[in-house]
From TrEMBL:
Domain of life: Bacteria
Gene3D superfamilies: Winged helix-like DNA-binding domain superfamily/Winged helix DNA-binding domain (1.10.10.10)
Organism this protein belongs to: Microbacterium bovistercoris
Record-linked InterPro entries: ArsR-like_HTH (IPR011991), HTH_MarR-typ (IPR000835), MarR/SlyA-like (IPR039422), Tscrpt_reg_MarR-type_CS (IPR023187), WH-like_DNA-bd_sf (IPR036388), WH_DNA-bd_sf (IPR036390)
Biased composition (Polar residues): 160-169
Gene Ontology MF terms in the entry: DNA binding; DNA-binding transcription factor activity
Protein name: MarR family transcriptional regulator
Classification lineage: Bacteria, Bacillati, Actinomycetota, Actinomycetes, Micrococcales
Region (Disordered): 143-169
SMART domains: HTH_MARR
CDD domains: HTH_ARSR (cd00090)
Segments forming domain HTH marR-type: 5-141
Gene Ontology biological-process entries: response to stress
């Protein structure tokens, strides 16, 4: 029998593969009426969620190379979705932000994503949906936390025996 961790890992792997696939992203974009290459959607989503950023910070957040991020941002800029502006903290650098058109496109993409999520939650009670959202948010936060920031997992030996060191008292 699979452990909860194995089931969760497999489910998350399937979720990430499905959600990030070019086919799924192309369908979301098409359903939202957005004409953009699916490969260019992650920086658009990230800028919409997190706000303006340096290209290097965006590349790091997306876990892609800086040249890849630059190519994506150049295509998004050519489409009118992003613009580069001087970084107020360092005039030698620039930050990338969504344009008004980019904000509108991001809003439509998020709306279509909500339609997709709502469809997947069909048959769930509002309480189940809310609990799932809360637990998933907590889980994602824990994945991003350093090991020292995470809540310690219970020690099965300690829990079973009631002792502090796992040894019988």
């Amino acid at each position: 029998m699979s452990s909860p961790e194995q089931i969760l890992l497999a489910s998350l792997t399937h979720l990430m593969a499905r959600w990030s696939s070019a086919g799924t992203q192309a369908a979301v974009a098409a359903d939202a009426g957005v004409q953009v290459d699916p490969v260019d959607l992650p920086p658009l989503y990230m800028l919409g969620l997190e706000g303006p950023a340096r290209a290097s910070d965006l590349a790091a957040a997306l876990r892609i190379s800086r040249p890849t991020a630059t190519k994506q941002l150049n295509r998004l800029a050519a489409a009118g979705y992003v613009e580069r502006v001087p970084d107020p903290a360092d005039r030698r650098a620039s930050i990338v932000q969504l344009t008004a058109q980019g904000i509108e496109v991001h809003t439509r993409l998020v709306g279509q994503g909500i339609v997709m999520v709502s469809g997947a939650l069909t048959g769930w009670s509002p309480a189940e949906s809310a609990a799932f959202a809360t637990q998933l948010e907590r889980f994602v936060s824990a994945l991003g936390a350093s090991p020292s920031e995470r809540e310690p997992a219970p020690d099965p030996a300690r829990s079973a025996s009631g002792s502090q060191n796992g040894e019988p008292e």
